[in-house]
Amino acid sequence: HKVFNELGNKAVYLQMGTRGENLLHPEFFEFIRFIKSKNEMSYICLNTNGYIIDDHMMLMLVESGIDQVVFSLQTLNPQLYEKITGSLHHQKIIDRIIKFKKEIGRQGSKMFLSVQFLAFPENLPYQQEFVDFWQAHNIDIQIQRLHSWGDKFYIDDSSPDEERYPCPYLWLYPTVTHTGKLTTCFADFFD
Description:
alpha/beta
């Protein structure tokens, strides 16, 4: 609360969700109401796996004032989805995303909806299928490349034709973790 009491009504992008499901927090919607009451200019983006979103929560999310919801679906291949997430609910999540998009339209909400694809070698053959499927539903696609989480993991993503730049997120996008902690980097989960 302290940050938003001191921030005032300044434009800020706030990322809700890293290494945990924010929707599991019992006061999640109260946090959103508080942030919006203190800072009408805030842009709140929620990342979710979508698993616990039922019809009631879907309505609450659309009415909450959240500006963007990103579903971390990662792939359209059910076997690869199970390997990545450990979940057998692939089709259920896809159906929820489509229903969520329809609910946004039904309510005339300006909420922006995205699905995320995780670009790693085993998943790359499914990327175009993912893009085509979600474009047919008029849903934005985010392609997430693998990264080293601050050099905590080795990722061979070097390309002689690609120039690398420092990450801008440190300075632009504060993140609120699933525990309510405010961090400067969404990769700060090894504390």
